[in-house]
Structures are given as C-alpha cells and as structure tokens.
Specification:
It is a single chain. By secondary structure, this protein is an alpha/beta fold. The chain has two domains: 182 residues, Rossmann fold (3-Layer(aba) Sandwich), CATH 3.40.50.720; 169 residues, Rossmann fold, CATH 3.40.50. The chain contains 14 helices and 15 strands. The strands form two sheets. Strands 3-2-1-4-5-6-14-15 form an eight-stranded mixed beta sheet, sandwiched between helices. A seven-stranded mixed beta sheet has the order 9-8-7-10-11-13-12, with helices on both faces. α6 crosses α7. The longest helix has 22 residues. The chain is globular, with a radius of gyration of 21 Å.
Length: 371
C-alpha cells in the first residue's frame, strides 16, 4: 500500500505521525512509505533517517497527497488538507469531530474513509491510541498550570509546592482517567495539595489505594465542584466522553468565586472544552484572562514535546497502521471490533453516532459497511 506521512501544519505542531523506526517496519512488509521532506525535523528526526529506513522523500505536498492510498497524520486535517482528500483515500489521525462541525462536513464532502485514533477502543474499555497523548497532556498540564500561576503570566504569583513555612498550592483535577491521574501524579510529585474528582467509585478507590491517600479522591458532585472553584489555585479539566463533546462543568458566573489569578487548564479543549469560558489557544499564545482567571487551552499540548510524543504515538498506532496496510480498511476493521470503533466518516456518511448527534446529522452503523 502507498502510505503518505505529511508534515503537520497546525500552529506550533512539531510531531510527526511516524518515526523512522515505524517506517522501517512498514517498508519491511513491502509497503511504500512516502514522507514529506522536513516532516520529522521538529521532532528530531531528519530526512536522512527516513531514507535509511526505506522511505521515499517528497518535497511537493500536492503530489504526496494525490498519490497516497493511506494518509497518516497526528492532528486533524486543516482546511487546505481537507481539500486534498479524495474518496479513494483512507485518513488515519486524531479527528475530535464532535467539536468541529466545519471539519466534519468537509470530511463528509471529501468522500474519504476517515478513522479517528481517539475513538478506537481497547479490550479493557480504554482508548489505547488516545492514552499515550493523554499521559503527555496530563503531565504537561501541571507544568503549564505552574507556569501560568506566575505573576508575570497573569497568575496569582504562587509557587506550586510552596516552601517551608508557606503552604503549597491547592490543585484540583476533574476526571480520574489517564489525563487526570497523570496530572495528579505530577502535581503530587511537585509537592502540591492535590484533589481528584470523579464519578466512578471504583476509580476513586483505585487511585486512593495507589497513592496511599496522598491524593484526596473525592466523588464529583455539584458541592464538590463548587468547593474546588472556591479553594483551588489550579484546576485541571480532564473529563472525557469518548467521541462526544465535553460537558461544561464550570460556568462563567462561577469564575467570580475563584481566587483572583487562579488558573484553569482545559485538557478537554479538543472536544470543545469542559469550562464555559474555554476557547482553543495555541503554543504561540497559550493563555488568556477572563474575569481575573487565567485560562490555558492549548489544543495540541503534546506538540510542544514533539520527540517524546512522536515516539509514544508511533508505539500505539503502528499495529493499526500495519493492519490497514496489510489487509485494507474493510478487512482490518472486520477483524477487530475495537478498531471498527475508530471509523467516523466513510463515503459521505457519518459512522460514529456521537459525532452525528453533535450536529444533528444522520449516522449509519459502521459494521454495515464491512460486507
């Protein structure tokens, strides 16, 4: 199969969809991999490494897209990339369509087969292709929050761990999944006072046991959220409804109850954000202030640590890329019901119900396309 790896063009996105090692695995199976010249430089992978691994380099982006059967990316295609898609092509990347109506309609019009990393499920009910970037984002959320608390960044001028004689900052993490646990772990390691909110008692029990009660594991209620709003110096939004828009958990009126200069970090911004006042930002201008509260809402946080992220992402995606290349999309999805959950759009039709419901569109069952 002819596989294309374009250079990412989203603002300050330095990741690339495949490492040279991943390319070597695919070319060793007889597939042709074409990498856009310079695609890996931001992650520390020069063109020469891809050539050594067996890839062809292509400087012309139009040619790269036009000749591809399978296009693998990191972030959702930008408008100019959507225009390059055709009905004969497979797109495999993060899509987060429930928060992007224009992108959803563009992919529908393209006729392409679009498979989303973030909705592929795992045998244990997890999201194996979202997990590695969730871990990175959760850990980065604490770094970003700590930096945003500095006075020069608009924050209250608080050092996250405090110092002897001065209490540490209070950090609340909303959501106890992969993002939430990694954020809580980082905040705890830096010496903050950490509370994690979740609606799963089993998850709270597991977190309490794992961290020996050093993290306050609290059932998420309206009262608990209100207390977090009043008391926290840093709140990290880490909620996830797979494939659907994130619920809005803190509204604008509640900002008046927060400490001036406190910080909201919205890791759910790819799915629309879990704070009413959230709007996507970039690494070029990561924060803004609403009613005295600093908001950090970068939609591609792991892009800032591109080498680590690229390696972790390739580790997770490569088995699925190989299945698509070896078998074709229909057989690969037919052989793996968890992989089938990744199909979001095909031949002008939405195949993922939560995406269709977000925009009042009709959807069809993905399994009906496999006969």
């Amino acid at each position: 199969m002819k596989i294309a790896v374009p250079k990412e063009i989203k603002n300050h996105e330095y990741r690339v969809a495949l490492t040279p090692s991943g390319v070597r695995e695919l070319t060793g199976r007889g597939h042709q991999v074409v990498v856009q010249a310079g695609a890996g430089e931001g992650a520390g992978f020069p063109d020469a490494d891809y050539q050594t691994a067996g890839a062809h380099l292509e400087a012309d982006v139009a040619t790269l897209w036009q000749n591809a059967e399978l296009i693998i990316k990191v972030k959702e295609p930008q408008p100019e990339e959507v225009e390059r898609l055709s009905s004969e092509q497979i797109l495999f990347t993060y899509l987060h369509l429930a928060a992007e109506e224009a992108l959803t309609r563009g992919l529908i019009e393209s006729g392409a087969t679009c498979i989303a990393y973030e909705t592929i499920t795992g045998a244990g009910g997890g999201l194996p292709l979202l997990a590695p970037m969730s871990a990175v984002a959760g850990r980065m959320a604490v770094q970003a929050g700590a930096h945003s608390l500095e006075k020069a960044q608009g924050g209250a001028g608080i050092l996250l761990p405090g110092v002897p004689g001065v209490a540490p900052a209070k950090v609340t993490v909303i959501g106890g999944g992969v993002v939430g646990e990694n954020a809580a772990r980082m905040a705890l390691g830096l010496g903050a006072e950490v509370t994690i909110l979740d609606k799963s008692l089993a998850r709270l029990e597991a977190l309490d046991h794992r961290y020996q009660s050093r993290i306050k594991a609290v059932y998420s209620t309206a009262d608990a959220l209100e207390e977090a709003v009043r008391e926290s110096d840093l709140i990290i939004g880490a909620v996830l409804v797979p494939g659907a828009a994130a619920p809005k958990l803190i509204n604008r009126d509640q900002l008046a109850e927060m400490k001036p200069g406190s910080v909201l970090v919205d890791v759910a911004i790819d799915q629309g954000g879990c704070f009413e006042t959230s709007k996507p930002t970039t690494h070029a201008a990561p924060t803004y202030v609403v009613d005295g509260i600093v908001h950090y809402c970068v939609a591609n946080m792991p892009g800032a640590v591109a080498r680590t992220s690229t390696q972790a992402l390739t580790n997770a995606t490569l088995p699925f890329v190989m299945a698509l290349a070896d078998k074709g999309w229909q057989q690969a999805l037919a052989d793996d019901s968890h992989f089938l959950e990744g199909l979001n759009v095909h031949a002008g039709q939405v195949t993922y119900r939560a995406v269709a419901e977000a925009f009042g569109l009709e959807s069809i069952e993905a399994a009906s396309l496999l006969s």
